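Backbone-to-sequence.
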């Protein structure tokens, strides 16, 4: 099990790496872009750099989900299927598309930030 310090360090490093590489959130404009074959996730891990994206776009949700592929419905973390369903709902609510990125990553779960495009 990862310690809290390890998780914080990983997400800080991800933010620095994202800034250095000029990474942007993943733009979803069509349902076919929301793969039901996750994980792996197509979203970049922006970590702490998500705070910069918040300055540019309106955040519409932050989704806590399973990253191992072994989650089951009814748990606190969304399963891959539940994540795909929620992203599809958000896409329908935002006709210009949605932007997504991994904000925090733990050993078995992660937070996916979602903004209006």
């Amino acid at each position: 099990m990862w310690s809290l310090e390890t998780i914080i360090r990983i997400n800080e490093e991800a933010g620095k790496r994202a800034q250095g590489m000029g990474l942007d959130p993943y733009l979803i404009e069509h349902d076919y872009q929301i793969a039901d074959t996750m994980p792996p996730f197509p979203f970049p891990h922006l970590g702490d750099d998500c705070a910069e994206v918040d300055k540019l776009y309106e955040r519409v949700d932050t989704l806590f989900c399973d990253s191992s592929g072994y989650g089951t419905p009814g748990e606190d973390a969304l399963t891959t299927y539940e994540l795909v369903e929620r992203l599809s709902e958000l896409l329908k609510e935002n006709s210009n598309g949605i932007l997504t990125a991994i904000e925090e990553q733990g050993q078995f779960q992660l937070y996916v930030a979602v903004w209006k495009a």
